[in-house]
Amino acid sequence: MGFNERERAFVEWYPRGYGVGFKVKRKLFEVQTEYQKLELYETEGFGKLLVLDGTVQLVERGEESYHEPLVHPVMLAHPNPRNVLIIGGGDGGTLREVLRHETVEKATMVEIDEKVIEVSKLYLDVAKGAFEDPRADVKVDDGVKYLKETDERFDVIIVDSTDPVGPAKLLFSEEFYRSAYEKLNGRGLYVTQAGSVYLFTNELLDAYRAMKKVFDKVYYFSFPVIGYASPWSFLVGVKGDVDFTKVKGERAGKLKLHYYDPERHETLFQMPRYVRELLERA
Ligand code: SAM
Question: Binding residues for S-methyl-5'-thioadenosine, per the UniProt record (predicted)?
């Protein structure tokens, strides 16, 4: 890699020797939590870097390139999103973006690993007060268990989890999609991050196939995300007659977005040709 010791790059090596690198100034600390190895680094120019089980989760400078496309397309396509559920998202970035919507009366965030919340509150400048928002209800629990047990019904469910291994594995299962469908209101939207378009194509296809068995309509889209082996894929499941191809521009204007562009919402659905063909045959 040619980096000297001081500039040791943090590189997420994929099987094919392809990855994303950040020059790190120093490692701030690491801890083995009940669920995963958590590492925190100071990078050169991108702020702090959060890593879970050796996989980049976010960098402070650029994390909106993930949180905006994850949150705002579904929030702006839903006619009136008041009750929102976030599964994962321990750093608070997704919660922060959801709470920017004036329609939101309650945002429940269910994160399995309390240490991620604790470290994010102490060291990361991502949540920006979201954890303290009176509309926020932050729970430490397994999202699979919570969704099965809750009596609540949601307008939007957002899965901001790690990739489908370990504690996140069941979040990409047909059984979980069925429990999510049941806990959506009559008109509801479900969105999940679905991995690297080029490197996790099989996971994207598996999740898409499973979601198509459950939701009334399923959409896929991709977005260039800083820190991830981009483009990154997202899947949206629809319950009822919500049209995900259109967003409420009047609500978008107030959000002053930086990465996702509601005025060009139709460009979101761009997918490399061979991946689109695989998805259409899935
Ligand atoms: N939001 C960040 C980003 O910019 O991509 C990264 C995602 S967030 C750190 C992923 C979280 O999902 C982790 O904190 C992990 O503990 C959580 N998670 C994984 N499986 C889960 C489950 N079954 N229920 C709840 N949270 C889970």
Answer: 36, 111, 142-143, 167
